[in-house]
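lol forgot to send this yesterday, sorry. struct tokens for the thing we talked abt
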């Protein structure tokens, strides 16, 4: 397995123009069957996916990922985003910099949590780039649906106090494995910053966007969710399964599992479910 690290620069047209984004990849020594574009979640980073990448590489899949603007080793303010499109700009830059020999291979988008929302909205614009998508615990529906008042207040705060922290995540909801939680809390690249008013408003707006236009997603799509996920609602994955326009789609809700299903004690089972599904799609 070959592991490489690098940096991407956001284009001048981006709301995050000139920002430097950390990126890394894992590639099999043998022939590559397909390329995974991995999109991580809120207040984490690509370095937390080493085990995920090792599993994928064992199955002939290269993995390319980045730390989002405001996350990990990338530029930007923790908990904040100037515009949701910055996340899409990062994916554009990552895909544009793929090795030439991998650009002709099938691309599989894998998005987790906020990364699932980023991935779903990216598919609404550029799904033709991909062969299939996997959405893990995607942030499509909130665990508690905000009221109309809260939505209106969020829009006001997004403009008046965009960097004000408004929502904290409970790290105990990450995994049932105490070591995963303690490692997460001790990770220097995990800021613990509250979601800002701007990011909260952008997330709500993009969740509504996906819900309104889900039928436009026609790629083969696998949705995975922990039944006891307290950070993103499993109902979001159920909604996608019922409303996306894909003829080839599958939903797996894992009993008892928490939010980070790739970091739960049953992670090997979940990862095998994912790679088995990808293999089936690639050989159709």
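and heres what i got for the seq, position by position
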């Amino acid at each position: 397995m070959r592991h490489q690290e690098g940096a991407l620069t956001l284009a001048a047209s981006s709301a995050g123009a000139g920002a430097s984004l950390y990126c890394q990849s894992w590639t099999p020594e043998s022939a590559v069957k397909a390329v995974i574009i991995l999109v991580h979640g809120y207040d984490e980073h690509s370095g937390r996916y080493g085990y995920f990448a090792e599993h994928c590489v064992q199955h002939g899949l290269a993995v390319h990922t980045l730390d989002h603007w405001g996350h990990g080793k990338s530029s930007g303010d923790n908990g904040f985003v100037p515009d949701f499109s910055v996340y899409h700009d990062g994916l554009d830059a990552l895909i544009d910099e793929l090795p030439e020999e991998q650009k002709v291979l099938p691309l599989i988008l894998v998005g987790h949590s906020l990364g699932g929302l980023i991935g779903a909205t990216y598919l609404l614009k550029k799904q033709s780039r991909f062969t299939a998508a996997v959405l893990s615990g995607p942030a499509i529906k909130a665990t508690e649906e905000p009221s109309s008042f809260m939505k209106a207040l969020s829009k006001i705060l997004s403009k008046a106090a965009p960097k004000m922290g408004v929502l904290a995540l409970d790290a105990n909801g990450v995994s049932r494995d105490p070591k995963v939680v303690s490692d997460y809390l001790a990770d220097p690249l995990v800021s613990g910053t509250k979601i800002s008013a701007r990011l909260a408003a952008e997330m709500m707006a993009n969740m509504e966007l996906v819900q309104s236009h889900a039928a436009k997603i026609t790629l083969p799509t696998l949705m995975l969710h922990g039944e006891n996920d307290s950070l993103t609602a499993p109902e979001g994955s159920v909604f996608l399964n019922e409303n996306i326009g894909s003829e080839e789609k599958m939903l797996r809700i894992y009993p008892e599992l928490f939010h980070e299903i790739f970091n739960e004690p049953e992670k090997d089972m979940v990862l095998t479910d994912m790679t088995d599904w990808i293999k089936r799609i690639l050989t159709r």
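The CA atoms of residues 36 and 277 lie 13 Å apart. anyway ping me if u want another try
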